[in-house]
Amino acid sequence: MNVAITEGLDLMPPAFSEGLDVWSSENGTSGSATYDGSATAAYVPSDADFGGCLELQKTQATQKLRWMGQVPIRPGLYLQITARVKAVSGNLPSVRIAGYAMSGSSHVSGLTEVGTATALETYGEVVTVRAIVSVATREGVDMGWGMDPAYGHFGIDLTGQTGGVVRIDDLVIEDVSDYFFRDLIGMVDVRDYGAVGDGTTDDRAAFSAADNDAGGRSILVPAGSFYIGSTLSLQSPMRFIGTLVMPDAARLALMTSYDFPTYAAAFGDEELGLRKALQALFGYVDHNVLDLKGRRVEITKPLRIEEYAPDVTSFSNRRVLQNGQLNVIDGTAWDDVKVTSQATYAIAQPTTLTGVANVANIPVGAHVTGTGVGREVYVRSKNVGAQTVTLSQPLYGGAGTRTYTFTRYQYVLDFSGMEKLDRFNIANLEFLCNGLASAWMFAPDGQMNQIRDSYVVRPKDRVFTSIGRGCQDFLIDGCQFLSDEQSTPAQDRKSVVLNVNANDVKIRDSRFVRFGTTFVLNGSGHLIVGNHWFQGDNETSATRVAGLVFTQTNVQSAVTGNYIDKNIIEWTNEHDATPDFSNEYSFGGLTVTGNTCVCINTAAWFTWFSIKPYGTGHFIQGLNISNNVFKSLNGTIDKIEKVDTTFADLDYSRIRNVMIEGNMYNGVTKFTCSPVTLEMNQSTAAQTWVLDASAYLPFGGWARNVEGLVAEGMVRNGSSARVTEMPYVQVEQGTGSQQVWLNWSQATQGRVQVRLRMDTPV
465: which of 575, 586, 660, 698 lies 20 to 30 Å off by Cα? Predict the structure, then answer.
């Protein structure tokens, strides 16, 4: 736009040859002094550089030259004032563009009314000075005057020493708004390309034509409702005043303007905008991050991938959802779906239920409960025609036909409708579940998904649920999780933070507050490092429940540097269709080191570590519990570890490679460890000394090996004569196999240090 052309404005000052009576020596206002007839100013008709020009002698500290014409100032108008000046003789001054802001007949004070000064350094050298004046204050504008002035008087100032003589070419004032409109209003309007905006006419072709013609300019979508009948990709920056209407399956890919606020504006609804932005994220868009820009989005129903991207069954490129809040709004969409059905289980098909009654009504992703079902077993898939259900884990209860309950929780983000999702990341996001919804259900398969620096507040049932192997390599980093059951006694809580069916999960530097169970982990290779999970309540002599549950025997995992507060690490094999030991790896591969373990107001039978075999014949074959701190407050507990024999006991004759040492005990009655060094004092001479280690051997294990025996002081016989021989030892003695017998060739008395262990080292 150029108002000099479109509105016929005459911005140009007259040439000096037309007379000096319109050139003020003051501010240019009506009645001010002019240079007409002045002894210090004269028109020069012929100059080698300028042709006709004004010759002016500088006699004042600031010598002003202003055109008395009223140059309009209005929004969107950018004026450039240009002057060409050269020094002729005398002192060399500086020159700058200057103006005088007016509103009606009054001066508008407090504004910048001068441009940058340029020194005249050589006689005869032509110097050009310019300045831009506008309502706007922005880069490139020298005098941003705002909305108060209506017009201005413009010219130049000569500053510096007096006495010099300069010549000035005719001043130029021109509209340079085009320089700025490329950024400010450099856009194309879809209406110019045939868009109707009536909500029914398909305007897709018009949008595509505007995009093709934009050439780097933005596309303006004006007021109206624009129907786009199929998937549309736009390369240009977008500005939405009106809104779009699209079929659910049609994608809108904003290749340049890809962020949540733009999608929310495009559809006139934040929740729909989020769904369409996620749909584009899992399609092709020139971005891998969906940024909510700190916005809070009200979510009225689960975000299910199959509803807004039904053709996306597998996705393996990195995608990130970040920087905002998802706030769950109450409604029937969050209600659990519960189905009870009879089905048959066979050990030969460990993850399949057959003959499932009412199978069509059983939702994929439903939580399975019933006799013989371990914790956190879910429906991975179903076949209605074959009446089968595929489970996430085997059942320990053996073959048979039973009645099961299938409960489908509702999740804010639900990827169960996909086959596979890899490398999906959530960062700096807050799930406000409000006791109405769970947070995130994984796809049946996938790996390297992550949540970091995020919060999940008051989830109803679950935080993360894996219905298959979509949890492989899942990462939790620097997050906080706050339960909806904080005032509920620990034993009555139902919520779970995370279940895992695959391997190599890393849970680091996060905090988990008062859930029913924090982690239920199958698979191996897990690292749980630097976290704080606590499951206490306000009860006295309270029941404490499992917080971290391993559900297979050989876990190859580490629990290191955590704060484990008022809950149990429980190790089971409940996800095994044949839980009795049968030439496999038994309980092994677990390292628990450097943790702080605390309980308060807890019954004496509480322990921080429990092994619970679901079948017979199992044993420990690799366990390190070392350098931890165990502390009981407001009451003591008996010991730190136990074997839960609800289903079966361990085979203590096969335990090997157990290291439990270097731990610190406070408020714990039995200081169990293995290896353990015990002092035995035999005050009366006896041929067999009996050392009872039952108070020290972990898990009620047997005294299986003696690593060393040292006499402390002299060993004497009944006559007080020194005995120099060493005894031989018998291990696994007594009714509980927890005694070591030291056998001497004669009756002796004295003191010895015995180092023994409840296992075979290798």
Answer: 586
